[in-house]
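Subject: complex prediction, re-run

Hi both,

The earlier run crashed halfway through, so I resubmitted it with identical inputs.
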Amino acid sequence: MGLLTILKKMKQKEREMRLLMLGLDNAGKTTILKKFNGEDVSTISPTLGFNIKTLEHRGFKLNIWDVGGQKSLRSYWRNYFESTDGLVWVVDSADRLRMEDCRQELSALLLEERLAGATLLVFANKQDLPGALTKEAIREVLALDDINTHHWCIIGCSAVTGENLLAGVDWMLDDIAARIFTAE
Amino acid sequence: LRIVSEYKKKSEENGFYDRNAAAKLHERIEKRQQVLAEDVERRKEARQSQSVAEEKSEYFVSSFNAERAGIQELLSDCSGADRPTVTQKLEEATAKMTQLQKFLNDSMIFLSQYQIRVAQGALQKLQASLNETREEALPKKKFTFRSRTKAAEKVSDSPPPPSSETVSSGVTKVEEAAISEQTGFSNISNESLTKTSEEIQSRDVLLTHLTNCKVRLYGSPSTLHLKHITACEVLCGPVATSVFVDHCSNSVLGFACQQLRTHNTTDTQVYLHVTSRAIIEDCRGVSFAPFCWSYPTLDQDFTASGLDQDRNNWSQVDDFNWLAAGTPSPNWTVIPEADRKTTWDP
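This time it finished cleanly. Structure:
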């Protein structure tokens, strides 16, 4: 009650969420963002810096931050942590060589204090590729079952075909909404 | 005397009057008290009928304990059960725990401090035993490429069964699966290597630890990874998605692709067709020229890859270590036209 209630009410009025999309380079973060927004995905270049998109979905205003995943950009990720409601971790399911890298980067992120309250959605992207690991395999490789500090969910998807992107975002919205917009 | 008697009479009257008033007052007070009592009674009744059954702490305590017992039972069922059952039970228990925590949060308003503390303590204990059970039944595995994972088994189910030799040599199931999905060359020196279109079509091609080799990949793979390539000449047909180059040196590369990501590469020439962008990171002495290799089925392979043959951004290279706008990156250059290679195979 008190301050928390006031904060909740303020958020409720805005019905705004901030989603941060991270992952190794070539995971498909920008492609997911563009596909979700209905843009052309065939000309996407590696992200040098970041993209921001504000979308309306199910009555929520989503501020989606897509930050480049190159090694040299990862140290800048922390600049985007503040007031993040949801973290979208994108995995290139076909990139077996760097799964261990992927696991390490994710587990480092989850220790971040400023991401402590955020919901975690793991997109096992590129499921359309013949060599893609299944989402169960990725769940195991990334040791997701050991996460008990965040609400999390893994969803297999394909940014190129758009498969399951909505399902993932909808899960995330529900989880965040249950947390910050709960009716008192 | 008359006055006195009159006074007396008056005072008697007065006295009578007083007595009368006192009685009336008493009566009024009693009435009022009765009304008040009735009021209290009524209000009490109203409150009781209004208050939802759930808001009673006894209700809370009993259902909290019932839920808790349910979870404990789930946990105790876990011992000795097989893995899938345990996983499912643990999941159920976790979900129930979350629910219980929410129930407690929602009930805080009408619970006493003491009750809240007790409930929270119980929850904590429950969480601890949940973790313990999880630890016991599904021991936390550090992911290593040696671990024999259930998921990897699933993946390797479809390709031909891996030989026991590779298992014993410590190659992981994940890698085995990778190998069966991937194709390529590794750990080879001083050789000429070729792959045909059938071998690489829509597959992931991986070249690692090659020294002084000539590699020709005719066809359209899905992705191409080059790792630890030294003094090689690698040419590849149109790659449908990305090409990764990591730790290459003193080599000549040529391919068409949608994206090129180059890392830790030094003194390497890239003859490139790229429909979006090429990037370099932690590279030095990398030079670019347009893709100019050709082989009989190149046009067909371009069509198969879905790449636009008329769009080539080979000279727009982003250096992730050189973010200054205006000044060009010192890490890459364009190969002067006069110095470009035009013939590849004699």
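Chain B touches chain A at residues 131, 138, 140-143, 145, 149-152, 154-155, 174-175, 177-178, 181-182, 202-204, 206, 222-223, 225, 227, 242, 244, 258-259, 261, 263, 275-277, 279, 281-282, 318, 320-321, 323 (CB under 8 Å).

- K.
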